[in-house]
Amino acid sequence: MQYASKWLWVVLSLVLTADAEAGNWPRFRGPNGTGVSLDAEPTPTHWSPTENLKWKTPLPGEGVSCPIVVGDRVFVTTYSGYGFEPGELADLKRHLVCLDRATGAILWDESIDAVLPEDPYSGMGVPSHGYASHTPVSDGERVYVFFGKSGVLAFDLEGRRLWQHAVGSDSDPRGWGSASSPIVVDGLVVVTAGPESRAILGLDAATGNELWSAPADSLGNVWGTPSVADLPDGELEIVIGAPYEIWGLNPKTGKVRWYCEATGEDSFNTSVVVHNDVVYAVEGRGGASIAVKAGGRGDVTKSQVLWTGREANRFGTPLYVNDRLYFVANGAVTCLNGTTGEKVFQARLPAGGGSGADNGGQERGRGRFGGRGGSDYSSPVAAGDTIYYVMSNGTAHVFQAADAFESIAVNQVTTDNEVFSATPAISSGELFLRSNKHLYCISTAQ
User: What angle do CA 444, 445, 446 make, to 5 degrees?
Assistant: First the structure.
């Protein structure tokens, strides 16, 4: 009986832990960056400005970072004072905004002065995404934000600033700005400060103290966010795409355990996605897709690469659902067999908007557009067998995770001229969509 009671308590603890995690969307693309909701509640497939719109909240500034959901709160970052609006660099502020998920009311808004000098609002890169590109991350106790040259900051859930840690003040070679989002791994905040310091850093989540730094010159051309591979032996690995390669890092030291040849590109715009202990990536205008088994030591190109291909991607991270990889680029959705890498189908998204091509009638990064350059930057996400993808003009495609393209709906949440560059969040049957002006909650529960 004593053994049975202990076993029952273990099972109950696991159930409670799962319930605590269910409903949370704590980082870029949700649980471990998969883009797949763990929740059982059905998610809306149809919406409009008058249908299934639970609330709409104006945001204090622009940005392309994604919302995260922690319990009954939604967090998102913005920037104001300079860039999309006239002003001076000295007026630039970043904001961490906390909203009540039930009503959309802003509970608190903490602003952070920019550490100067900052990259100017010019050229090809910064005007396309601005100064709030990094999605926050939470461990359930604190919320961590990365603001490039202004560093990494931690807040408690009530908005009290706990610590701030500088991670460098350099710029990337192209002057495109910074975009990689932080993640939390086993008590560490892991930050890809490629443009700022050509390094990945591990910070103590409680204090902000730097525990390790993994430098590499090629990180200056990395804009993707790491994920974590859970190995069969119980070890964890940080995995990330870098120019020409995929890396697996020891989260305790930051040292590279293994690497493999991956692409012919000198930059990495997307993020890798992990299923079980296999790392998938689809990257590059020239086309480069790969599946590699995590673990190992040194160069594993010949020993652990499962397949490679030449499928072309742009900015969105692929989505793994039912042994299929789905990604959207240039107005088309492509599905690959996750086991072999072979193309299952490729189809144009139905008419209804979006830029399709890179330019969409405007050149990317022409100063005043401020993220209005026509490219689609979001990634697909899924709830069950339903996939969601939002284009830059707000057209939201809903389609089936299947071996042939099956459109379910094409929706618009607003008729106003707004830019949707953020990947949606999914939580307990609700969708959270972020534009450059508003945060929206899509729900059948009104």
Answer: 105
